[in-house]
Amino acid sequence: MCGIFGLINKNKEYNAGRIFKSLCLLSESRGKEASGFAVLNNSMINVYKTPFPAGEMVKGKVFRKEILNRDRNFRENFTAIGHSRLVTNGYEQYDINNQPVIKNGYVVIHNGIIVNQADLWRKYGSTTKVSELDSELIPVIIDHHIKQSGEPGRAIGILFSEIYGMSNIAILSSGYNNLFLATNNGSLYYIDDSINGFFVFASERYILQSIIKKHKLPYSYSSVRQLIAGTVLSICISPFSGNISSIGENINNISVQIPSFGIKIIKNEINDKNVYINTSLEHRVEKVDQGFIDFYEKRKEIINTLRRCTRCILPETFPFIEFDDKGVCNYCNNYKKHELKGIEELKKVAEMHRRNDRQAECLVPFSGGRDSSFTLHYVVKELGLKPIAYSYDWGMLTDLARRNQARICGKLGVEHILISADIRKKRANIRKNVLAWLKKPSLGTVPLFMAGDKQYFYFANLIMRQNNLKLSILGENLLETTNFKAGFCGIEPRFGEQHTYSLSFADKIKMVLFYGKEFIFNPAYFNSSLFDTFDAFRSYYLIKHNNINIYDYIKWDEKTIINTLINGYDWETDPGTRATWRIGDGTAAFYNYIYYMVAGFTENDTFRSNQIREGDLTREQALELSIEENRPRWDSIQWYCRTLYLDWVNIISSLNKIDTLYAS
Fold first, then answer.
1. What is the pLDDT of residues 395-431, one digit of tens each?
2. Sign of CA dihedral 395, 399, 400, 401
3. Which of 2, 65, 462, 612 has its CA 20 to 30 A from that of 285?
């Protein structure tokens, strides 16, 4: 999730300020919504934070003064930590919600989510809570237990025994001459050269390898070490030394103390910059106009009368559907059941990629949804591999998905690399395309709303190269194919193709021509999102997808997956729906409302129909489930519109006026 990093330097040959700037910029990929740093200046810890990305922060006067323009003596006695923020708790437009966190004489940077923060605030509630951050708990709990035991290592151990979720932390203290690092999932890497007085850490191995290369440091890539989950690293700032102890044990060198540091907050230099006002964390549910509910119920009655396949539940409005004399559709007649390769074959693949150097052995693309969550569980618990979990956050990943990511990675101790897009820009692009689409609605161009997430595949390939990984294990449920989206572009189904991105060259040309025509007749699409749209097409349809799919080897079983996640990881579901598919995707409720109201079906109908064909559900069961799952998720639609600065009442009113594919 967020990027945390830091540097202790006592080597006059190294330009500490420039190295720290590189850490800021390289860590920005993990969060672009805010940034900050804390730097030790004689007896003062100077703290600065800003609601702008690190790329903006390093251009400012404060960064030049505090980091880049210090005299040579300062370069040789440099200690600083920094943070590049992906917002999960607390709006970034308020500096109190940005990091580093200052409390009780501690300066803390934190990557992760503490999902049981409400319980812990009740337990440690004697301290006034000043921000909306879960990170504020960290100095509160540590300070409480240090006062009881006098041992920072033990206090940090207790902290990690009480928090639930994924957490990586770095701490400077006004009372200890030490930098403390700790992790419960291994998303921290460091180079420790105590002989030459150099210590650096970051959230990813690749960041430190890039530092070595860019600044021509005398280290090999093997010098980069991973902080093992469940350990604390304590670095005494002066004299320079390092020591690793198991979490919860006393740390030997913390007895070195100096007169208390002061902590100084540096005034923000916003000046004439416009501060982005984020609204994505607001989850209030407005009362739904009874007229909307009545309109939906009327449409549902009509949709329930549509002719449907007598074997599955696809309706007559489905693209290119045909029925034989028994009423069975061509999708059923041409369906081939999935033939599994088997668990033993999967184990053979795992064995081929097993390593003995304690480095990661595979990548697991990880949305936080049910299928990828179970895949990560299976890779660790059943295959015994050491994976890196990878996520791409394009601004529509829900808080629920992020919390589930934290739960799974924290409990499994799995490193999590999150690539953050420019979320503000992505959301602006979605907004422009939604408003453009409403000028001339077409079901074929609905996927424009999701174009921003398709770079997911590009970054998956990039992370594999950066981490020297040859195996990526994807959890793609092949029953969830949504080929009707291409069908609405005039592309006939290619029966037997398993992936929605499996289009022939001719079909890709057809799709380009379809979108080209739509753009010509609706010039509103020619906006700043255009480049992102083209890049999405390239990433989704043109680049190689270097994955094996775990569900080619083991059977996808909904009951087993849900039971494993809920009982084993306290996996969170959405109280607004019985469905567990797409609940981590902030766009799904919106576009499925469009498909249902205009075409009379959603993704749920295609998924449940495939389950019928596989023999996993009866037609009656599937129809009952789809009717329930297709109900509008009003709270999610409201969140979507609020996040994009759209008036949800006006949006729903506009959607309800669109001509339907059935007699309404």
1. 999 999 999 999 999 999 999 999 999 999 999 999 9
2. positive
3. 2
Burial class (CB in 10 A: 0-12, 13-18, 19+), 521: exposed
Could you identify the residue written with the tokens 């498909």?
595
pLDDT in tens, 610-633: 999 999 999 999 999 999 999 999
pLDDT over 70 percentage in the chain: 94
Q: Please state, in angstroms and as integers, the Cα–Cα distance from residue 160 to each residue in 236, 243, 571, following that order.
A: 22, 19, 19
Instruction: Give the Cα separation of 267 and 661 in Å (integer).
Output: 58
* Residue 625 backbone zone (phi > 0: left; psi -120 to 50: alpha; other: beta): alpha
Amino acid occupying residue 75: R
* Residue 285: burial class (beta carbons within 10 Å; 0-12, 13-18, 19+): exposed
3-state secondary structure of 81: strand
For 226, 291, 434, 441, 590, the CA distances from 652, given in Å and listed in that order, are 50, 11, 12, 13, 10
* 632: exposed, middle or buried (Cβ count in 10 Å: 0-12, 13-18, 19+): buried
Under a CB-based contact definition with an 8 Å cutoff, are residues 312 and 335 in contact?
no
CA–CA distances in Å: residue 182 to residues 157, 187, 230, 243 = 9, 10, 7, 12
Is residue 58 within 8 Å of residue 25, measured between CB atoms? Answer: yes
Indicate whether 71 pLDDT > 60.
Answer: no
Q: Which of 110, 161, 112 is nearest to 416 (CA)?
A: 112
Convert the pLDDT of each residue in 479-510 to its tens digit. Answer: 998 889 999 999 999 876 555 556 788 998 99
The candidate with the shortest Cα–Cα distance to 255, out of 241, 269, 266, is 241
CB 143 within 8 A of CB 105: yes
pLDDT value at residue 269: 79
Separation between Cα atoms, residue 7 and residue 327, nearest integer Å: 69
Q: Of the candidates 232, 19, 15, 410, which has an alpha carbon nearest to the alpha carbon of residue 5?
A: 19
Residue with tokens 């040579």: 72
Long-range contacts of 571-578 (CB under 8 A, 24+ apart): 571/370, 571/373, 571/404, 571/407, 571/408, 572/115, 572/400, 572/403, 572/404, 572/407, 574/400, 574/633, 574/636, 576/633, 576/634, 576/635, 576/636, 577/629, 577/631, 577/633, 578/625, 578/628, 578/629
Residue 171 exposure: Cα atoms within 13 Å on the Cβ side:
32
> What are the CA-CA distances from residue 286 to residues 289, 448, 638, 639 (Å)?
9, 27, 8, 10
How sure is the predictor about 257, in pLDDT bands with cuts at 50, 70 and 90? Answer: very low
Give CB contacts under 8 A, 24+ apart, made by 517-520: 518/440, 518/442, 518/444, 518/445
| Partners of 183 in beta bridges | 168, 231
CA distances in angstroms from 426 to 137, 384, 390, 423, 643, listed in the order given: 31, 37, 19, 5, 11
Note whether 646 and 653 are within 8 A (CB).
no
CB 286 within 8 A of CB 93: no
- All residues at 6 or more sequence positions from 460 whose CB lies less than 8 Å from its CB, including other chains: 363, 365, 390, 392, 472, 546, 547
Could you tell me how far CA 332 lies from the centroid of its own chain? Answer: 36
Q: Residue 257, SS3? A: coil
Contact of 108 with 101, CB cutoff 8 Å:
yes
User: What's the longest Cα–Cα distance across the chain?
Assistant: 89
Mean pLDDT, residues 236-259: 45
User: CA quadruple 315, 594, 397, 515: dihedral positive or negative?
Assistant: positive
pTM (two decimals): 0.92
β-strand pairing of 44-50 with 262-265: parallel
DSSP letter at 661 equals S
For range 239-249, the mean pLDDT? 45
Helices 558-569 & 399-412, crossing angle to 10 degrees? 70
Nearest 5 degrees, angle CA 397-CA 632-CA 578? 75
